[in-house]
Amino acid sequence: MQPLTPAIEDLLEHLEDLDRRLRPLRAGEGAAPVGNLLLLKPALAEIYDQVDTLIAGIRSIDAAYQRYRDRFLNLPAVCLSTGADGVILEANRATALLLGLAPDRLQGLPLDAHLHPESIPAFRSAVAALGRGEGLPAQEFLLVRADGGIIPAAVGVSASYGPGGRATEFLWVFRDISGEKQLEETLRESEDRYRELTENVSDAFLALDRDGRVISWNRTAARLSGRPMEEAVGKSIYDLFPELRNDEVVEFFREIVTTGRPGVKECRFHLRGREHAFEVRAVPTRAGVSIYIRDITARREAEGALLRSEERCRMVVESQTELISRRLPDGTITFANDAYCRYIGIPCGDLVGRRYALTVPADDQARIQESLASLTPDRPVSTVEHRVIMPDGSVRWQQWTNTASFDERGSVVEHQSVGRDITDARMAREALLLANRKLNLLSDVTRHDILNRLTVLTGYLEIFREQVSDPELLVYLQKEEEAIREIQHYMAFTAEYRDVGVAAPAWQELRRIVREAVVGLNPGNIAIEVRTGDLEVYADPLIVRVFANLIDNSLRHGGQVTRIRIYPEESDGGISLVYEDDGIGIPYEEKKNLFERGFGRQTGFGLFLSREILGITDLSIRETGEPGKGARFEIAVPPGFYRFTGRDQAR
After folding, report:
1. Which of 373, 383, 438, 448 is nearest to 412 (CA)?
2. How confident is the model at residue 651 (pLDDT cuts 50, 70, 90)?
3. Identical fold at 75-176 and 320-421?
4. What is the rounded distance in angstroms from the CA atom of residue 546 to the CA atom of residue 247?
5. 552 to each of 103, 472, 557, 607, how far by Cα in Å?
6. What separation in angstroms does the CA of 510 have from each of 383, 452, 527, 573?
7. CATH of 183-300, one of 1.10.510.10, 3.30.450.20, 1.20.1250.20, 3.30.70.580
8. Could you report the per-residue pLDDT of 75-107, keeping only the tens digit for each?
């Protein structure tokens, strides 16, 4: 825009000066002759009117100019004008704000001083084209702010032409497109991520238009159809996958597009000579629909195999005579097999979902709760025997093996219980124990009578020795006395062996066993260290004699023993209870007969009986020490015959 206001102001100033000069004549003042004034008066009146009209018009033009200039300066769009040489004539406030300079500082500067070097050739080309009178489409320039920042801008330009068609002025309009560029970049990155995602997903991906033609697809879809990308684009999905051309699938896709809601469909068709199952997921888009095709053949086959396996397992469980049930921590039954339901007399359909249990005598309830409370993620199995009161009032004995399932926080989510009625077995065991007691009583009486007779016989032999001097008879007498001693020895063995297997095996804490084993012995200053924690073993109650015998042997035959240690060592095959001392040890030549009956320096029954007592519950013992470094016995305890109760952690 040309700075017209100063010229108009100069013209107004000259006209006003002329008006001041003519005003005295209008009023009749001055020295002019009267005749001349009469002649000039009509002309002067006309001149005065024209001057007044001209002044008013010029002032109107100036006011209009000021209004338009104010509008230009306050336009929200970035506008500036340059001469034909590209020098800025005037810039509005939006331009100043965009470039970071005041409008008056922009005037007189070449516009290309605020352009990025990449945009200067395009700017000069545009100026040259405008100078030739050519029209220009919208372009994009990079503007440089005063602080060095780069701003992408869309540019529109118009030219003003003077006489002879020469360009005199250019009006430039810039629009900051930084947000659009950022949006385009974000969109491009999003499209790249989307493309990368669709290319790398294992599912076959197809983007379709509303007519079912392929817009794009990924490598998996290309492999599935056997056609490359360039061949698939623009073709119907039904041409690429003819098996999908059926009324059900066509209606499925039509419904997705019509309703705008995603959906899932399972289809089956042959691929490379084999029937496959595919899961087709369709998601509506603005262009049409996106389809994800996943081969679920292996999953369906696995599900079928799992169903068959579950059916087989169900048949096995249902055919079991054991009582099998599963319960939630609150006691709700989630499963019960037929044997369990028949046992309690309630149909399975009426039992599942209920909290039901047979009445347990108060004396046994604590034992059940203790068994369940001992279950941990590391040791989730326990066995307990208890009584139940049947619906008919009879009392039965049951044995239950409870297995707990835990969640990731270690909380119990379910108990599976496998039980059996052991009433008959328990009655038989009690009858056997009663018979054993009677046999032991008979054995005690018989042994007592035999020992009495041996005492009498020994007395008679002593009398006979005093009356006989014949050497040959004395030899016979000596053999008879040796036979009596052997009989007495056997009687002592039967006294020791009589209690083995009489009492039922039970869970016993190792620390208590060792404490009882030491009773009656005199270890003196020997330190006995028991590092078994809360370990319990399932063994004959006479296991106390095993440890009593080991400790007694260390005291009698270990030499200078100062310490005895008892501790467990765990392995995949169970645990070993290690008993070791720091004495003289056992010679190698004695180890092979160590557990034979009659071998030893005392009765010869100690280690033999120890092996027999441990063997009742499948425990075994061996000696693994080195002579000169102390005795070391290892008692092997198989899985299921030991447990850690967790009481130490509770304390």
Report:
1. 373
2. very low
3. yes
4. 82
5. 112, 42, 8, 11
6. 19, 40, 17, 19
7. 3.30.450.20
8. 888 898 898 888 988 888 888 888 888 888 888
